[in-house]
Design goal:
Layout: H1 2-67, E1 72-75, E2 88-92, E3 95-100, E4 103-108, E5 114-116, E6 127-132, E7 135-139, E8 151-154, E9 172-174, E10 178-182, E11 191-197, E12 203-211, E13 222-227, H2 228-231, E14 237-239, E15 245-252, E16 258-263, E17 275-281
Parallel strand pairs: 5-7, 9-11
Antiparallel strand pairs: 1-6, 2-3, 3-4, 6-7, 8-11, 10-17, 11-16, 12-15, 12-17, 13-14, 13-16
């Protein structure tokens, strides 16, 4: 009798192992399905958040575009998307793009004439969308961003592409992220439009010039950039022949004063043409 019972027990062990293995397999399958559903839910929530941000920015741009020149409004965007996901914003081809984690989502725009100069992330940060003669500009500031034509000075009679009195009179100060619109060009080669920039932090300052002037060749606009804190009105970096658009990046130190000068000429002193000066600290 004892031997029979032992034989039955030994026969039951493999069956028990099969049942346990089957239960574990089912459990693993269920666990995989749960994880997959959680991942799908996570991605869907992140997509919805990205779509919300894209739609919000696009709505602000569209309203300002429709209202015309001079209209502006402020808005904010979150620092990160759902799940602490970093994201980037761009505009082009009549769409506002949100790019994140190798994915993207879009929202339609009523205009393709949109420039994102600078955009601060965070609910406590304010950004401005502004209509400038049909071009919609997105920047972290309004109001103070447009400082016109700077301080007009005559300081280069010898056409040496320098301004030895770049600090007299005191130049108009513009922000490290700014948009300045000037409605006229200069009259002669010694007339300069002078601006001052005091960046709040060190980094790379991108300066973009867009001009509608009709000069050609060496008569096009020139730019000089001084580290005034280090050198005063000496040893500028020079960029030549800017029309119709030129961008250049300068390395800057936080707290230093920098002077930017534009030699913006106009044939026969007719003051034809307008220009936009954009600064962006990265």
């Amino acid at each position: 009798m004892a031997k029979g019972r032992m034989r039955c027990k030994s026969q039951g062990s493999p069956e028990f192992n099969v049942v346990v293995s089957f239960v574990m397999l089912v459990f693993l399958v269920i666990l995989l399905i749960v994880f997959q559903k959680q991942d799908e839910s996570y991605k869907f929530q992140r997509y919805l958040d990205a779509k919300r941000v894209a739609t919000s920015i696009a709505d602000n741009i569209n309203v300002i575009s429709i209202n015309g020149h001079g209209y502006y409004r402020y808005f904010s965007v979150p620092e990160v998307l759902y799940g602490n996901t970093e994201y980037n914003i761009s505009a082009g081809d009549n769409f506002l793009w949100i790019n994140y984690a190798d994915e993207n989502t879009v929202a339609p725009l009523v205009t393709d004439n949109v420039t994102i100069v600078h955009l601060e992330k965070g609910e406590s940060e304010s950004n401005c969308v502004y209509n400038s003669y049909g071009e919609v500009l997105v920047n972290d500031i309004c109001g103070l961003s447009d400082m016109g034509c700077g301080s007009v000075q005559s300081c280069d009679a010898g056409d040496f592409d320098t301004c030895p009195t770049c600090d007299v009179p005191d130049p108009v100060q513009i922000h490290q992220n700014s948009i300045s619109q000037c409605s006229f060009y200069g009259c002669s080669t010694d007339e300069w439009h002078i601006y001052k920039i005091v960046p709040e932090k060190s980094g790379n300052l991108k300066i973009t010039f867009r001009g509608s002037g009709t000069m050609t060749g060496s008569d096009k606009t020139d730019m000089i950039f001084y580290d005034y804190t280090a050198n005063g009105c000496n040893s500028p970096e020079s960029i030549f022949q800017l029309e119709t658009q030129t961008s250049h990046v300068f390395s800057v130190q936080g707290g230093n004063t920098y002077i930017l000068g534009l030699d913006v000429d106009s044939p026969d002193c007719s003051y034809n043409g307008t220009y936009t000066l954009i600064t962006e600290l990265k």
